[in-house]
Design goal:
about 200 residues; alpha+beta; 6-stranded mixed β-sheet; 8 strands
């Protein structure tokens, strides 16, 4: 087995680059952890989806991590460019992941560059809707807006008001207004997102 030593991780449900870590995040110290080289597609699947690994893989990494807290099923998967740490539950479901500080990720990639890739048996449970092209803050704003719209679905006049403020046009059909707003958000219409965030923030106050 190949190991990395003296790392810091910040396990979250979604992937955040290390420069997006925040002061109130629970950053952990890892003294030793298993490193496994995988294909580009495997690493991409683990970052972008909810996956479940085989029992054989769990056995491979079980209790191999030494850290501040007990991490029974943890490991680092890497390719020729990046190393990412993953955390699994006892049934094999991927529950959290963490980017690594650039130097620590780079050290792993360079140190184990010539080792063979390991084929991991896993299946994709569902796609992760988290948008990796946006920053942590941007995703937080978008999710907050979508949550507010969903919770306002019973208040048809509020939805129509928000629609009017965004498009300067009155839509009598509530369903059309709601769908238009949500679609524009999901399609990353920054003007609509900015407008809704501003209005909803004022309403909350």
């Amino acid at each position: 087995m190949n190991y990395a030593h003296d790392l810091v991780v910040n396990y979250k449900s979604n992937f955040y680059q290390f420069y997006e870590w925040q002061k109130n995040d629970e950053v952990m110290n890892i003294k030793s952890i298993v490193c496994i080289k995988v294909s580009d597609n495997t690493l991409k699947d683990f970052i972008n989806n909810k996956v479940k690994v085989s029992n054989a893989f769990l056995d491979m990494i079980e209790n191999k991590t030494i850290s501040d807290k007990s991490l029974k099923y943890a490991c680092i998967l890497f390719n020729d460019e990046i190393a990412v740490s993953f955390l699994f539950d006892d049934k094999g479901y991927l529950i959290k992941m963490s980017s690594l500080i650039y130097d620590e990720s780079d050290d792993i990639v360079n140190k184990y560059y010539h080792i063979d890739k390991v084929g991991i048996k896993y299946k994709i449970i569902n796609e992760n809707k988290y948008d990796l092209t946006k920053t942590r803050y941007e995703n937080k704003v978008i999710n907050s807006i979508l949550y507010c719209l969903k919770n306002s679905s019973s208040n048809k006049e509020k939805i129509k008001y928000l629609y009017y403020e965004c498009f300067n046009n009155y839509e009598k059909d509530y369903t059309k207004a709601y769908k238009k707003l949500t679609n524009e958000i999901l399609n990353n219409n920054t003007k609509v997102i900015y407008k809704l965030n501003k209005i909803l923030s004022l309403i909350k106050k």
